[in-house]
Every structure is written in structure tokens, then in C-alpha cells.
Amino acid sequence: MGFGTARLRAREWADADAERAYDLYRRDEVSRWLGSPPAPLTSLAGARERVASYRQRNADSAHPCGVWALERRDTGLVVGTALLKVLPRSDGATGPDVEVGWHLHPDSWGSGYATEAGRALLDRAFAAGLPAVYAVVYADNAASIAVTRRLGMAPLGPTDRWYGVTLESFVARPPAGG
């Protein structure tokens, strides 16, 4: 199940989105911030597999977690990916920490979409009763660090707790009384 904001709709990735997913995840300027080590997509077939894996992740995930295509309401253009997912610990264990994330196509950078989607994701997480949501970012990813600040996330400093690599970490907690 997706969600929305004033300008964006988060929905299930569809097979028809594979070309856009390929154009997003083949780009070094996007993929360099994802994974350890980063691995850009190299084929449309790889994009189809990724889209299918996102749908499977959604089928297997408990509310509020998921990975969604993020599209503009006015044009239907997929601007990227929005996600809430259980963070993979460096020791191989899973949970219980949940990550908020965004992967935007460069043609959609600078429009405030990451912040808008991030707010909606945090609202979704806190409405479901999560006590904390984390963001993990490569230290030189200034744009995503700026998004965490706009979201009011508190910096926790560098950690290698997740993904097996040292990343800057941030946390958001539900508003007091909320």
C-alpha cells in the first residue's frame, strides 16, 4: 500500500517502470551513494529484476515498511524511490532498526521531493508506532545530509553498525505527545 503528499504519490513499482528504474540506477551520480560497494545497474534486465525485488520486498514487509516508486502527481513521472526498511546489521543479524531513504533521478534533484517524501515516510512510521527511524548516509553525500537536517533528524555520528561500512547516522523520533 502506497501513500502520498501534495505533489507526490508513492506506489508499487510496476514492470512498466523498469526503463525509468534503469535510467535512475545506472547513473554513477546516484549509485555511488548506494551499497557497499556501490554497483550501478548495467542492463534493463537488471532493472526488471530490481523492480521485481522491490515488489517482493513489499509483499514480505510488515507495515509500515516498503520500497515504493515515487511519482509526480501532475505528470506521472517517476522521480525516484522512497523507502522504509529494516536496516541490515553489519553482523548479519536483522532488525529492529528501520531506515528511511530516498533515491532520486538527477532530473528531479533540487525540487524538494526527497524532503517531502521523507516527511511522509516519517509520518507513516510514527503513525505505525515505530519509536525511532534512522537514516544512514555516506559522509560526502552533502545533499542527503541536508535532507536529514530539513527533516529534523538528529545526527548520531559515524557508525559501522549497518551495511558493513562506516556511514553518518541520523535518527528521528516521534514528536512529544504524538
From TrEMBL:
Which residues does the UniProt record annotate as the domain N-acetyltransferase? 8-177
Q: What is this protein called?
A: Acetyltransferase
Source taxonomy lineage? Bacteria, Bacillati, Actinomycetota, Actinomycetes, Micromonosporales
Q: Name one GO molecular function term.
A: acyltransferase activity, transferring groups other than amino-acyl groups
